[in-house]
Amino acid sequence: MTETVIDPRFQDRERQPGLDLLRALAIIVVVIYHAALFGFKLPGRVDRFGWIGVDLFFVLSGYLIGGQLLAPLARNQRINLGRFFARRALRIMPAYFVILAIYIFLPSWREYPEMYPTWKFLLSVQNIGLHGGTAFSHAWSLAVEDQFYLCLPFILLFVNRSPRLAIIIPSVIVLGGILLRTFLAYQNLNETGVSFRGFQAWIYYPTWTRLDPLVFGVALAAIEKFRPEWWKRLTNSTIWLWLPGLALIVYALYLGEGDYVPVTAAIWQFPLLGLGMAALLVCAVSPRLPFRRVAIPGAAFIASIAYSTYLVQKLVIHFVAQFCASHNIALTSVWALLGVELCVYAAAIILFLAVERPFLQLRHRLAPRKP
Fold first, then answer.
1. Other beta carbons less than 10 A from residue 58's beta carbon
2. What residues does 194 pair with on adjacent strands?
3. Sign of the alpha-carbon torsion through 137, 172, 228, 161
4. CA angle 317, 26, 255 (to 5 degrees)
């Protein structure tokens, strides 16, 4: 009998090692990517691919949160909207507002002097019209999720009325995103391809062009809850699924290789990445592969502090970069690379223990997950 792996946040929740591994990998590559933007570059520029960790977070989030919302519908019960939104608020708001307060009231700590208006962050619309080189810009992905999960329960209640709608609505969202990215890519063309600033502001950051991985995650949750036989066949076929999933991710990255953004990459990268990562998620939960059973040491804890890590990362990277500059330490040295990673996770642990975990425990008492 295998030993049960328990959630570090509580004493009575079982972990899913495969999903923990994916979440841990997602935050690790995102931190490496953002550190590289400030000069902590790895040999061979392999850090340039780290941005795809956000897409992996989206697929995981769509699967997990979508599964929570779909579970009562699969039992012919109603979604408890009050509990759902209370749980989401207690999960994301406390740590988010602590970091936002630091950005607002301690401007000298920011990684960039310029910052978008506070009201955008308070309303979770900071991803609209955003461009890089501004403080706390990585919070764009949190805005995408906030907006998505504000609408998702109502979409699911509508879709639940008809099996046809369950196919039509996700298809319209994905196909609509492809068409919209096509239009926006050609609207922002220059002599080399899609202008990078236009790509950032109109394609990379906005919610309506980044829904593919979230939708794919929710679709997996829907298959699991409403079509258990299909889900069983899918998870049993993962021995043939992991390689095509990796191939899709590699091909999507290949589309965007170069010093400019090709039109094909602007249109197809996100859905291809989403499909590839959805395939890897299925592999992570499949009983046919070891990821579901074998817990990688440390993965559960890194997964647990991933949200705090995501919030605090750029503040810490900025401080470490300043320290290295004042002490003549090359940012690409082994000590600098190790130092920035260790400092990010150390700060994340503090934020997690001081803010995130107490509110998660409060959520556990006030709005417990329904068995």
1. 27
2. 189, 261
3. positive
4. 100
Q: What's the pTM value of the predicted model, to 2 decimals? A: 0.94
Per-residue pLDDT at 371: 59
Structure tokens at 336: 């600098």
C-beta atoms surrounding 346 within 10 Å: 11
Q: How distant, in Å, are the alpha carbons of 57, 208, 227, 268 from that of 23?
A: 7, 24, 25, 24
With b for 16 or more beta-carbon neighbours within 10 A and e for fewer, the 128-160 pattern comes to bebbeebbbbbbbbbbbbbbbbeebbebbeebb
DSSP string, 165-190: HHHHHHHHHHHHHHHHHHHHHHHTB-
pLDDT band at 14 (very low <50, low <70, confident <90, very high): low
**Using alpha carbons only, how large is the chain's radius of gyration in Å?**
20
d(C-alpha 347, C-alpha 351), whole Å: 6
Say whether 80 sits in a helix, a strand or coil.
coil
Q: Which of 188, 179, 252, 186 is nearest to 209 (CA)?
A: 179
- Beta bridge mates, 189: 194
CA dist 50 and 27 (Å) reads 9
Determine the number of helices (DSSP H) and then strands (DSSP E) in the chain: 15, 0
Q: What is the pLDDT of residues 63-77, one digit of tens each?
A: 999 999 999 999 999
Q: Residue 334 pLDDT more than 70?
A: yes
Q: Coil, strand or helix: which one is 77?
A: coil
Residue by residue, DSSP assigns 274-297 as: HHHHHHHHHHHH-TTSGGGTPPPT
